[in-house]
Amino acid sequence: MKPIRHYLSLMDVSAVELRQLVARAVQMKRGDATDATADLLRNQTAALVFEKSSTRTRMSFETGIAQLGGHAIFIAPADSHLARGEPVEDTARVLSRMARLIVMRTGAHERVQRMAEYATVPVINALSDFNHPCQMLADIQTYFEARGDLTGRRVAWVGDGNNVCHSWMNAARQLDFHLAIATPAGYAPDAEHAAACAAHIALGFEPAAAVADADLVVTDSWFSMGQEAEKAAREAAFAGFCVDQTLMARAADDALFMHCLPAYRGFEVAAEVIDGPQSVVWDQAENRLHAQKALMEFLLRR
Ligand code: CP
Ligand code: NVA
Fold first, then answer.
1. Cα–Cα dist 273/277, whole Å
2. 127 CA distance to ligand 1 centroid (A)?
């Protein structure tokens, strides 16, 4: 039997596999793959262990699992023993005896790593404090559908050097495009990760410089889950980092705007941009479903 593959990072697949996954997601979206996938999870369950809130990720995984013929069991901290101190290692082994797949959203990245280490079924990272690789699959699919390949493109990240930014940095490596990152001082991406991605990224503090001639402008909330206590300090630090029409005008004429959502209009993005013609945020949200179905098929059909 082939070894189990987990998906904790965009780097867990090769560049070739990544392109195959995106192509398959596009095919599934068109409805071409229904017959081949409807029974993939028949009579089987997938455990969704979510230690943080979610709208899109939960909805897209539960919908996708149902469309693959399976049943999703949502395990929230309040209902499980994880929050009462049962080790992730024990949880991983118990869930693996019943579920065909584990999807985990958590804080510290090492928790999902430990889940994968002890699970005997594939584990998918549905967001950690470090990265958000499922979002990245959907975002790549969205760009490919709207504009074609990302290779050689210029992408600008404006805002917090957070988990979603870290996944965009991996995408730059995998697909060979340039990512200009503008953050306030003190909010840059993880230094070790930045060093690993150095050939494909530029770090700076000026949104206007980062978005110059960009093909795509991306941002995310200034306050990620778990940072609620930092809200006032962050709001002050991120002044000048709102992606508004003036900033978008510095990008290429046909530039797109992306945001993983949830969005806070008037903070990281102006309503005129997120609700305007360059925004593809609803396609990003929908593509979570298709991209994750392709991912589950990839991990399960081995
Ligand atoms: N973008 C995203 O992951 O959204 P949720 O937090 O609603 O799942
Ligand atoms: N950076 C955000 C992404 C939410 C999907 C967070 O971690 O809360």
1. 8
2. 8
pLDDT of residue 63: 97
Ligand 1 atom at shortest distance from the alpha carbon of 260: 1
- DSSP-derived secondary structure letter, 199: G
Instruction: Provide the β-strand partners of residue 102.
Output: 47, 123
Mean local confidence (pLDDT), 240-261 = 98
Q: Can you tell me which atom of ligand 2 is nearest the CA of 227?
A: 8
On average, the pLDDT of the chain sits at 97
Is the pLDDT confidence value at 35 over 80? no
DSSP 228-296: GGGHHHHHHHTTT--B-HHHHTTS-TT-EEEE-S---BTTTB-HHHHTSTTB-HHHHHHHHHHHHHHHH
DSSP 98-156: T-SEEEEE-SSHHHHHHHHHH-SS-EEE---SS--HHHHHHHHHHHHHHH---TT-EEE
Q: Does the CB atom of residue 138 touch ligand 2 within 6 A?
A: no
Nearest to 181 by CA among 144, 151, 218: 218
Atom 7, ligand 2: which residue's CA is nearest? 224
Helix (H, G, I), strand (E, B) or coil at 49: strand
155-163: average pLDDT? 98
- Which pLDDT belongs to residue 259? 98
Q: Could you list the active site residues?
A: 105, 132, 135, 220, 260, 288
Give the C-alpha separation, 220 to 278, whole Å.
Answer: 16
pTM, two decimal places: 0.97
Helix (H) or strand (E) holding 170: helix 163-175
